[in-house]
């Protein structure tokens, strides 16, 4: 038996068996003070962050691929951004984007405390617009914006990813709603997105059924 991991809102559920999910979360090593505080804040105030199990996946994918330039679409209060910023190391760069200035202000304070501000560019506004203006290709593009915009996210991101780069998205199983009848508009958009990434001749795609589902696509 493992200890029960405390339940947090960002854990979602609906994908793996609850006991297995508990087991996974109970095994995770503790986070540093800043990440732990963001997890608490997210849980209290319903901020939808990826949480530590997925944070580790992001970190690991950046490490394995040696990513140095990462563009994040939808960063909220900076939780996933900190995982990325730590993974790229010194000399790496992560673009934080969010439409909400208050989120960005909070995120900046967390970045300072985490000691990663130097590696992060904070941009407030529409992530899709910012990304569409980018000229230099990215090593990783992470999609975590409003779900109805996921198909647009795919179209904007693909040309801005280097060959061998990763296009990663969160929530692609959407609490299991992708497998149920009568999808709502958000679920419809995710269904369309998942079809696009699997059918794209430019990508090699898998979906990891961790937390709310994470898609990982390698650009050929
Ligand atoms: C799921 S949260 C991001 C969580 C973050 N990736 C994390 O795990 O810590 C989604 C965020 O994206 C922002 N957002 C949604 N659509 C956006 C868009 N088109 N451009 C910029 N920000 C957007 C929202 O304000 C919200 O804070």
Structural topology:
Layout: H1 18-27, H2 33-45, H3 51-65, E1 69-73, H4 79-88, E2 93-98, H5 101-114, E3 120-124, H6 127-132, E4 138-143, H7 150-157, E5 161-170, H8 185-199, E6 203-208, E7 214-219
Parallel strand pairs: 1-2, 1-4, 2-3, 4-5
Antiparallel strand pairs: 5-7, 6-7
Bound molecules: S-adenosylmethionine (SAM).
Question: What would you say this structure looks like, in words?
Answer:
This protein has about 220 residues and is an alpha/beta fold. The chain is built from 8 helices and 7 strands, in the order αααβαβαβαβαβαββ. It has helices spanning about 20-25, 35-45, 50-65, 80-90, 100-115, 125-130, 150-155, 185-200; strands spanning about 70-75, 95-100, 120-125, 140-145, 160-170, 205-210, 215-220. The protein has a 7-stranded mixed β-sheet with strand order 3-2-1-4-5-7-6, with helices on both faces. The protein is globular and about 40 Å long. The model has no long low-confidence stretch (mean pLDDT about 95). The structure holds S-adenosylmethionine. S-adenosylmethionine binds near residues 79, 98, 127, 145 and 146.
Give a short synopsis of this structure.
The chain is α/β, with parallel strands linked by helices and 220 residues long.
